[in-house]
Amino acid sequence: MNDSERKQQDRFQALRLQRFYLAQSTYMIAYVVIAVTWATGHYLGSNAMALSHYALGFITQFTFFLIFKTGLNLRFRDPSLTSPQIIVALLLQTYLLALVGEIRGTIMVAYCLILLFGVFQMSRTAYLIHAALALVCYASLIVINQYLGIYPQSLTVALLEWFILACFLLWLIILGSYIRALRERLQQRHSTLQQHQQTLRSMMDQLQNLATTDALTDLPNRRYFIEEAQRRNTLLSRGQTLGLALIDLDHFKRINDLYGHAAGDQVLQEFARIARSNLRGNDIVARFGGEEFVLLLDNCDLATLHHCVERIRQGLATHPFSALPEGVRCTMSAGICLIHPEDDLEWRISQADEALYQAKAEGRNRTCAHEQAYA
Ligand SMILES: Nc1nc2c(ncn2[C@@H]2O[C@H](COP(=O)(O)OP(=O)(O)OP(=O)(O)O)[C@@H](O)[C@H]2O)c(=O)[nH]1
Q1: Mind telling me which residue stretches traverse the membrane in this protein (predicted)?
Q2: Do residues 231 and 291 share a domain?
Q3: Residue 301: domain span
Q4: How many CB atoms lie within 10 A of CB 107?
Q5: Contact 219, 207 (CB under 8 A)
Q6: Residue ID of nearest Cα to ligand 1 atom 1
Q7: How far is the CA of 255 from the centre of ligand 1 (A)?
Q8: Which percentage of the chain shows pLDDT scores above 70?
């Protein structure tokens, strides 16, 4: 079971316990009713019998509590244990009704309360079976009373009570079906909404990706680079520096002119791969535009920056391109500088650009640092 499945199971288990606690409030009412019935002299059994209602209630409910708390309920087909809980309650209720004499008709309504717990949860057939059990229980009480004469009751009144109980229980089916349909509709809407949200989220991700990635090289674009460099710049603490390098492929126009635009594209893609493979995961290489690229190295001094850019330059200079004729190589020039805390990014980029211009002027295929980078 993975993490999200476990979380879902915990959530359901908490809900089952909540339902169980709610059922306990009904038991509390029943305990009060028993006490009042006993105190007013309407209870027909002995004191020990009166106490047995409490004992049975406590034992059965504590058992259910333990089953839920230990997670034993998860081994059952229906972990909510709706059916066993209802059957136990129906039997306890019938036992109580057997001993309350003429007020039986009033307390009988508790059958409906008990079945209410199942009407939204169980299938219609399961509900009908449990409702039938309630009716059988009550009918048995009538029959037993007629034979044993525990207390005087007219058969007509008893049958009328049974009929009224049957009507109430049937009415619960209508209510249950209505609420269940409503719940299913809500669930359906909820899942549709979730699907829409998911689609929207992935579209947003795609849009974000499109807005920040260069389609040809799959590198971050200029916009992403500026935002990220500015963010990292604000995080710099005193004494720390970021390494900045502006890279331009040499005589790239010639490659396009001599070997075609597609070959040029492939060179750009290969360069992106070479640069990426020579950097650490946290460093950034972005396409700045055309055949110009930019690097940002975290926590970097001038020597490290120079070394890193040189590694890329040499990697490119020796790389055989499948799109170019045998022996044709591509070179690059780079201008580098450092970014200090609270520096203006544009100003540092223009310094790297000046250094790049110098590298081009000095004959290309080299890395030049801006003079201020030595300061
Ligand atoms: N194939 C291809 N070419 C591009 C792309 N973007 C820009 N270019 C080409 O890159 C070339 C850049 O040429 P220039 O700016 O003259 O520079 P260069 O030829 O590299 O010369 P130096 O930079 O001075 O070494 C132009 O011909 C652009 O059309 C692209 O996405 N694909």
Answers
A1: 20-39, 51-68, 80-97, 103-120, 127-148, 160-179
A2: yes
A3: 222-374
A4: 17
A5: no
A6: 264
A7: 8
A8: 100
